[in-house]
What does this fold into?
Amino acid sequence: MTLPNPVDYAVPAFVALVLIEMFVVRRANRDRYEPRDTLTSLSMGLGSTVAGALTAGAIVLMTNWLHTHRFFDIPYVWWAWPLCFVLDDLNYYLFHRAAHRVRWFWAAHVNHHSSQHYNLSTALRQTWTGIFALGFVFRLWPLLLGFPVPMLLFCGGINLIYQFWIHTEVIGRCPRWIEAVMNTPSHHRVHHAVNPRYLDKNYAGVFIVWDKFFGSFAAERDDEKIRYGLVKQLGSFNLLHSVFHEWIGIARDLVEAPWRAKLMYLVGPPGWSHDGSRETSDMIRARWEERETWRTVKNTTSSLSAADRAAAPLPDGSAKAASTASA
It folds into this structure.
């Protein structure tokens, strides 16, 4: 059976919706769409399409090889479609989590997070180097179970189309039952945030239940404004820099790092360094949590008596020295 690529049919709708959103939000807040940022996003989307066309032959060879060595045969029956879709979405979650936790995969994914704006054009910031990073291995292994190649690729296309609409601030929160099960704009805004409380949260593609099950879920809060982009912002709209800066950083680290540390610069978390000169997302969050804990203690002790405040612990856990005087 031959199935079309659903993304090809969705592209005109993507462009139309970007233009509509741009018109709507710029009337209320012109800062939500920055022309140079939007142009960079569109250029990344075009470049990703070209890269996909250039590497399509390699994908065809790999998918055919995997399906040739399948263990079972799964036909085009009604139950196979939802099973394939759910399995593919779980695999997307696993890939997406690895893409934030392993620097090698992050190098191909980082460009999607490089915008400090959050709108539908941000969804078009797709990788040019995904096939080089080998992230596709997370998505193709079900072919060994016997799922037909066209079915798996079609489900993957629907997954990608679904993720387009969640890249917006125009939609607030959806009905509670949708927020409980599905990935939504609210959940995905959290994922794109650089606020310490939100780092490495909400990896879901379609079903947010994966994050809730695997402990990576965080709900959007109304009392904290979301900041978008990267922990260390690029500060540039240069297209090639946006696409390749992390690969260049990896190459530089591999040349300069001692031999014992070289592997970790490939498979360690983004921000890892052998000399502690950088911070991972876990380190940033831990430092923020410590600061929040001390702020809570400080606010609590501020209402106590002077004697109680004198006995309150310092941030390092040590006790305050008692201040006594004798006549």
